[in-house]
Design brief:
heterodimer, A: 10 helices, disordered N terminus, disordered C terminus, B: 252 residues, alpha+beta, four-stranded antiparallel β-sheet, elongated
Chain lengths: 202, 252
C-alpha cells in the first residue's frame, strides 16, 4: 500500500524515461491538449475521449485533503507523545489516501477498459501496472465541497468518497482494491466534460 | 478521401528518404507526405467505417498510440511540428486551404525555432508523509493545533488541515522556483502546466536541444539527489515539441 515509499527506495540511475516505456498516460495530456490545431476539424469522438481521460478529471474537493493532513498531523503527534518509533502509525495515516488513490485508479481503469474492448490487442500487463502506479488522481482546486465529482463517474467513485467521509477502518481497503465489477457502461452522456479538462482550466 | 493529420515537417528533398510507417485506424493506412511549397504534412487515410456513427476518430488506446508512434518516428528523422490527436479533414485540398497555405510563414518559423530540439515533460511531487513530517518539525504549533482538534469539531480539523496546506503551498512555491532555476538554465524554453494536486510541486515541459540532453540528465540527477525522499521526480522524453507549438487555426 505504501507504494510511494517503495518507489523512492528504488532510485534509478537515470531519472528520465523514454516515452515508449512510459506508456500512454505520460503523453495523453500532450497529444489531446497541445500541438497544431485546426479548430473546425478536430474530429474526436467524445465517447473515446471520455473513456481515456475520465480518471484525470475526477475531482475530490480540498476539504478531503485538509482532513487528511489534519489526521496525518494528529498521528504524528500521537507517535511523538508515545515516544515509540511506530512508523506504522505514520504509514497508516497515509493509507487512507492510498485507498482513495487506488480506488480512483481502479475506477479509471475500469472505465478505460470499456474503451478498450473494441478490436484492440490487450496491452501487456506489466506495462499497464507500471502506468497505474505512475498515475495519480487529480484533486482540482476548490471545485466545491466533498462529493463534487465529475458527473459521469459519480456512481463509481461514490464508494470512495464514502470512505473519505466515513471512518478509517481498514476493512474498506480490501473492498477498494478489488472493486466489484461495475456495469458495463458506467459513463453515460455528458461528453463535453472532456473538454473542460486541464487545458481549459489554465 | 479523408485526411488525418500527424504533423508538419520541412519537405524532404527525397520523399522516400523518410520512414513513415502506418497510422491510425483499422486497417492502418500507410502514412504519406502531402507537399506544399517546401513544407510537407504527414497524413494518412482513416477507414470511413471506423469514423461512422462516432463522428470522428475514437480516442482509443490503439489510435492514440499510433499517433504518438508516427510522430516519434518522424522526430527521430527530422524536426516536426506535432498536431493534436484527432484532426481529420475531408480532403487534401482542405488541409492546404486551412493550414498550409494561410500559415505557411508561421509554420516555417516554428520549424526553424524548434529545429534540433525535443520536449521533456517533468513533474515533481511531494511525498505526503515526508512533507507532513517536515512541516510538523518546522512548525510544531500547527501540529499542536492538530492535537487539540482531536476532541474538537470537524471544522477545527479542517482548519488545521487548511493551515498545513498553506504551509505546504509556501514550500511548494520555493521548491518550484528552485527547480525552475536549476533545470530551466539548460532549457531552450519552458512551458509550465497547472499543478493539479496539492502535492504537485511542478508540472511542465522543457524544450531541450538534443546536444544538451546529457547535460540536462546530469543536472536532473543532482536535483534528484537533493530532493532526497521528500520529492518524487519524473521526467519523460524525448518527445515531439507538443507544448511549444502554439499554432491554432480557427474556423476562418
Amino acid at each position: 500500500m505504501i507504494e510511494q515509499g517503495s518507489s523512492l527506495v528504488r532510485r534509478d540511475p537515470q531519472i528520465r524515461r523514454a516515452p515508449n516505456s512510459a506508456g500512454l498516460y505520460d503523453v495523453l495530456d500532450l497529444i489531446l491538449d497541445k500541438g497544431l490545431v485546426i479548430d473546425a476539424f478536430v474530429r474526436v469522438s467524445l465517447v473515446g475521449i471520455e473513456l481515456l481521460t475520465v480518471d484525470l478529471r475526477v475531482v475530490i474537493a480540498s476539504v478531503d485533503t485538509y482532513l487528511r493532513y489534519a489526521e496525518g498531523a494528529e498521528r504524528l503527534q500521537l507517535y511523538e507523545r508515545s515516544g515509540s518509533k511506530r512508523l506504522g502509525d505514520i504509514a497508516k495515516s497515509t493509507s487512507k489516501s492510498g485507498v482513495i488513490k487506488k480506488g480512483i485508479e481502479k475506477a479509471g481503469e475500469v472505465l478505460e477498459g470499456n474503451g478498450r474492448h473494441r478490436g484492440q490487442e490487450e496491452p501487456e500487463h506489466e506495462e499497464q501496472e507500471e502506468q497505474e502506479r505512475e498515475r495519480e488522481p487529480v484533486r482540482g482546486h476548490h471545485e466545491g465541497v466533498a462529493g463534487t465529482i465529475t458527473k459521469g463517474v459519480r456512481n463509481v467513485v461514490g464508494k470512495i468518497v464514502d470512505t473519505v467521509a466515513g471512518g478509517d477502518d481498514d476493512e474498506h481497503e480490501q473492498e477498494h482494491r478489488h472493486p466489484k465489477h461495475p456495469e458495463r457502461h458506467p459513463v453515460r452522456g455528458n461528453g463535453n466534460a472532456g473538454r473542460t479538462k486541464a487545458g481549459a482550466r489554465r | 478521401m479523408n485526411v488525418y493529420l500527424y504533423g508538419v515537417i520541412k519537405r524532404p528533398d527525397e520523399p522516400r528518404s523518410l520512414e513513415l510507417g502506418c497510422g491510425v485506424s483499422d486497417p492502418a493506412a500507410p502514412v504519406r507526405l502531402l507537399g506544399y511549397r517546401d513544407l510537407a504534412a504527414a497524413v494518412s487515410q482513416v477507414n470511413e467505417q471506423e469514423i461512422g456513427e462516432a463522428g470522428g476518430v475514437r480516442a482509443l488506446r490503439r489510435d492514440v498510440n499510433s499517433h504518438t508512434q508516427v510522430l516519434n518516428r518522424l522526430m527521430d528523422q527530422t524536426t516536426v511540428l506535432p498536431a493534436r490527436f484527432g484532426i481529420l479533414l475531408p480532403d487534401e485540398q482542405t488541409l492546404v486551404d486551412k493550414l498550409l497555405e494561410p500559415t505557411y510563414e508561421r509554420l516555417l518559423e516554428d520549424l526553424e525555432r524548434l529545429r534540433g530540439t525535443v520536449e521533456l515533460t517533468f513533474r515533481a511531487d511531494y511525498v505526503e508523509e515526508r512533507i507532513l513530517e517536515e512541516v510538523a518539525t518546522e512548525q510544531p504549533q500547527l501540529i499542536g493545533a492538530g492535537r487539540r482538534s482531536i476532541q474538537n469539531t470537524y471544522h477545527a480539523r479542517i482548519e488545521t488541515g487548511r493551515r498545513i496546506a498553506s504551509a505546504i503551498r509556501l514550500k511548494k512555491e520555493q521548491d518550484a522556483q528552485r527547480l525552475l532555476e536549476r533545470l530551466g538554465r539548460i532549457a531552450h524554453d519552458v512551458a509550465v502546466a497547472d499543478s493539479r494536486s496539492e502535492l504537485s510541486v511542478f508540472r511542465g515541459s522543457f524544450l531541450i536541444r538534443r546536444e544538451d540532453l546529457e547535460r540536462f540528465d546530469r543536472e536532473l540527477e543532482r536535483v534528484n539527489a537533493e530532493a532526497g525522499s521528500r520529492m518524487k521526480l519524473a521526467c519523460v522524453g524525448p518527445l515531439p515539441p507538443f507544448s511549444f507549438v502554439h499554432l491554432q487555426v480557427g474556423t476562418g
